[in-house]
Amino acid sequence: MLEIDQFTYGWLTPVLAYVMSVTGSLLALRCMVRARNGDGHGGWIATGAVALGGTGIWVMHFIAMLGFSVRNATIRYDIPVTLFSAAIAMGVVWVGLSIVVRRHGDIQALLAGGTITGLGVGAMHYSGMYAMKTDAAVRYDPWIVLLSLVIAVVAATAALWFTLHVRGLAATIGAALIMGIAVCGMHYTGMFSMRAHVAEHMHAPAGAQAGQLLTPLIVAVSMVTMVTLLQVGLSEIDEPDLSRIAGQRASRYWPSQDGGGRGPSDETARGTFRHRHRRW
Q1: Which residues contact 277 (CB under 8 A, 6 or more apart)?
Q2: Which of 27, 56, 114, 121 would give a disulfide with 52, using CB separation of 3.0 to 4.6 Å?
Q3: Which secondary structure element, helix H or strand E, spans residue 138, and what is its range?
Q4: What gap in Å lies between CA 48 and CA 33, rounded to an integer?
Q5: Which pLDDT score is estimated for 246?
Q6: Which 3 state secondary structure label does DSSP give 132?
Q7: What is the predicted pLDDT for the residue at 44?
Q8: What angle do CA 36, 41, 42 make, to 5 degrees?
Q9: What single DSSP character describes residue 239?
Q10: Number of helices and strands (H, E) in the chain?
Q11: Residue by residue, what is the 3-state secondary structure of 43-100?
Q12: Segment 28-77, tens digit of pLDDT
C-alpha cells in the first residue's frame, strides 16, 4: 500500500481550507438574512448558493487537495469533471436553500433540504476525487464513505437551520465557524477512506497538474467571493420593525396631531361624536 499524505505542506492547506469554508458560510448566512427579510429573495438565494457551494465547499475541497499527495504516484486532474463538481456543489446548495426558505418553519422541508444538500455535497466530494487521475490503484473503505455521507447530511441540515434562525452578527460568525468545522470534517473523513496501491500496467495519467488547474480556479472564485462579501457587508441587518407596523395600524384609529392621518377611522370617530350630540 502506498503512503498517502494529506498535509504535504503542513498545516498551511487545512488552515486555508477552513478559512475559505468559514468565509463562504459567513457570506451565505448574510445573504440568507436578506432573503428572509426582503423582496427578490431568489437572487439572494442564488448568491448564497454560490458562496456556500462554490467557496465554502468546492474551494475548500480543492485547497485541501493541494496538500494531498501519494508517494511514488503521479496525480493529474480532469478539467471538465473538476468544473462539473463545482456545478454540483452550487446546484444542490441552491436546491436546499430554496426548499427551506419557501417552506420556512416546516421541519420536513428542513430535513428534506438537508438530506438533498448533504448527499449533493458528498456527490461533489467524490466527483472531485474522480476528477483526480493517478497511476496508482485507488480504493475506498465503504463504511468510512458512508460515515462521511452521514456527516455531510447532518452538517448540511445544521447549515440550513442556521440560515433560517441565526440573528445578529456575532451569532452569524459563530455559526459560520461551526459550519466550517463540519464541512472540513466531512472532507477529511472522506479522504481517510481512500487507499492507494501499486498497480501494474497503469499508464501515466492525463490531465492538468494541481497547480496549473486548481490555483487559477481557486484564486478566481476567492476573488469573486471577497468582492461579494464587501458588497453584502457585515453590518447588522434589521429584522422587520413590527412596532412601526403596529404604529401605522394604530394611526388608522387615532387621528394624528397634525390632522394628516385621517382615514376611515376619523369618519367613525366623527360619527360617534354626532350620535352622542343628538342624544343630548
Answers
A1: none
A2: 56
A3: strand 137-140
A4: 10
A5: 45
A6: strand
A7: 83
A8: 140
A9: P
A10: 10, 6
A11: HHHHHHHHHHHHHHHHHHHHHHHHCCEECCCCEEECHHHHHHHHHHHHHHHHHHHHHH
A12: 888 887 877 765 567 888 888 888 898 889 989 989 998 898 888 888 89
